[in-house]
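Please, structure for the following, as tokens.
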Amino acid sequence: MNLTPKEREVVERLRSHRVATMKLLRDELDVSHMTVVRACKKYGYHSSINHNASFYTLHDVPHFDPDGLWFHGDICFSQHDTLEKTLVAMVQNAPAGFTVAELEQRLHTRVANLLSRLSRRQVVARCFAGRQAVYLATDGLRQQKQRESRERRRQESSAHTVACQSAESPYPQDCDVVLVLQVLVQIIKSPQADAGAVAKALCASGCHITAIQVQRIFEFYSLKKKRHTGGRRPGPATRPG
């Protein structure tokens, strides 16, 4: 490697910083822009794929993760060199594809416009989960597996959310404190009424509630209603003559 003394200074200074900008290296070493460029090209380097590619590191400094990424704080370097190549590789290899938000959180940079362009060029595929775009591999078999994995994740997340809400909420599903209190007051007024009767009475007073909601409140708070068996009530005891 035929480095001039000035170029060697650039390499050693960049190694000591691990990550640095062009301006920092120029100012600290009092060298030209081209001297820094030549030194980096001769030795080998990576420029950041975020922060407008303004940060540099030597090629043998990063230890890339399975996605081919290495971070220095929030500065991201990629084994794939450019942001475009990084996005394509990550989308193609992802088990369930990626949304824009997932990639932006991972890479610490905005990627929505670039992903749209890649989709139009058919470098990556795109589908929609509700209003959310999901970027997928272009290979048909790989893409189908990603879609299935994404759907499983959605179902698992939905089930987890419902379970957490049930565990954390002090009120039954679709019921709030006002409805609960109105039902309890009505039960005090009519202790023998079933769910349908309670709902009917509350609706007549202007409360919007269904018999199903009333029943949920009964079950949630273990309110056991006494019900008549339908037999005749015993009459008053007959006094002896």
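The chain has three domains: 5-62+72-78, 83-167, 177-220. The chain is about 50% helix and 10% strand.
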